Amino acid sequence: MLWYVGRRLLQMIPVFIGATFLIYAMVFLLPGDPIAALAGDKALSPAVAAQLRARYHLDQPFLMQYFLYLKGIFTLDFGTSFSGRPVSEVLAQAFPITIKLSLMALAIEGIFGIGFGLFAGLRKGGIFDSSVLLVSLVIIAIPIFVIGFLAQFFIGVKWGLVPPTVGGNTSFKNLLLPAVVLGSVSFAYVLRLTRTSVAENLTADYVRTATAKGLSRRRVVQVHVLRNSLIPVVTFLGADLATLMGGAIVTEGIFNINGVGGTIYQAVTRGEAPTVVSFVTVLIVIYLLANLIVDLLYAALDPRIRYV
After folding, report:
1. Which chain regions cross the lipid bilayer (predicted)?
2. What are 167-214's pLDDT values in tens digits?
3. Which domains are assigned to the chain?
4. Whether 208 contacts 146, CB under 8 Å
């Protein structure tokens, strides 16, 4: 097991370097001058502009800028944003909010998606199965910003069940509605994936053998069908954690949440490559670690899988 974990960690190094390089290059190639954008309508003097370019290494070639940034990452120095704040401080302020929001969304989509998908798969072709498939298809078809505005208006404004906006209060109650909106599309995918996997495993030979041995249907479903059906679902959930955090821009914008999404959007518009890449770097690390955890969970779900 330790050997497998060590090998996977070594495999993450080139993925990490390649992903950060691509993100840094894309931000670097954005049109416009970030120093000029920093000044707004007022033109900077050549001396001040040169000083700012030297401060943020913008006077260096692209590869040198990237290597200087990478050096700072390995020494836990994420640099300074164009506003003068350390990027690490911006990270520390934005990430806990988005992590909390994403974990809530992941829990909602995992619990309800697996639950509804399991019952639909066990009753394939029935009214419940057809209903949840129709509802999940409607959720997938509607853009998330439409779901967000509708939920905010009806649940938050018209009915007053939860606060319509979050602002600086990131309590569980305030983040509940944004978490539901953020995890809604993934909930539909988890539901359909679980339903299909359960329905397929119900017709497998090992299920018929377990039933022929006299095991109760409840034990067959819990021990055999559900555990084997969860393998593709766990794979999706592991990859979806970083996707939720990176895709929270729309949700955080609708509900006025000062998290990762809004910070990345503002940094991209200002051309702040260190800030954007720092946030994406943390997302890449979370994605890689989540996939490592998923691989380790395979052995817990399927006893035939062993890492030696």
Report:
1. 12-30, 97-120, 132-155, 175-191, 225-250, 276-301
2. 778 888 889 999 999 999 999 999 999 999 998 888 888 888 888 888
3. 1-87 (no CATH), 91-305 (1.10.3720.10)
4. no
